[in-house]
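Trying the structure run again after the queue cleared.
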Amino acid sequence: MRKSGFTLVEIVAVIGIVSVILTILVPVLGGARRRARSVLCRSNIRQIGIAFDLYSANNDCLPYAYVMYDSVLESVYIANDASVDWPGVRWYHYLDVMPDRFVPQNSVLQCPSKNYTELQFKYNIQWGNYGMNWSVGKSPRLTLPTACREFEGSPTKLTSLDRPSDTLLLADSGYAWIAWFHTLASTHPSVIMTNHELLNQIYLPGASVNRQKTLWPAQEEDALYGRHPNRTVNCLFADGHIENKKADDLVVQPLDHGQFTNRSPLWQP
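Done. Tokens:
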């Protein structure tokens, strides 16, 4: 008479089957979570886009990308973390998306796909979330090298853009603003001429050129492997539409005679 229960062979067989199923399911579930975070990221960007539109309608222009000092917003002059942040006012301080300078993790300003683990950066608004295109956002006159003077000027009017559907306004970014030259290799002459502080720490997540940058350890996963499936970046264009594009498709590539692909109208309006 056979005793009830499982034999050792049957138990081993069941464990083997479960292991195979888990091996198949874990990557699938991980990919599903990543796609879900990417969808939530696009939702955040859509809400930010609406805030840009409201600001533009009320002020007849877009907000500055960065201002060293603004007496109206003096209370936010001090950045999140003085050890890694410049003091000053960013584009989001002007929009109705930020009640104060300390923003909780579930804010629309925090990318849910952000790959930062160090607390110094994880809850910092400036780093690893969304960056405004500096060529569009502009800044008031700053002490900038001559090569950076294109970023100085009056706030941009949306009605002044010739090709708003092709002009990048906001994207997943290593910092709160980003310029076309941040997508070039750090050894390119156009980059060297800018002499821009923190040049290597500002990037498009997942772009191949980031392997040539000197990144902080906390940024490496975000910069090198990207946030969304297939190393894509969620982008808001000046006409309000959102696209999910490969990071490398947004990179500015140098051509002969000082010309570049993707610089205009994608980055420069």
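The two ends are 85 Å apart (CA to CA). Worth checking whether this holds up in the mutant runs.
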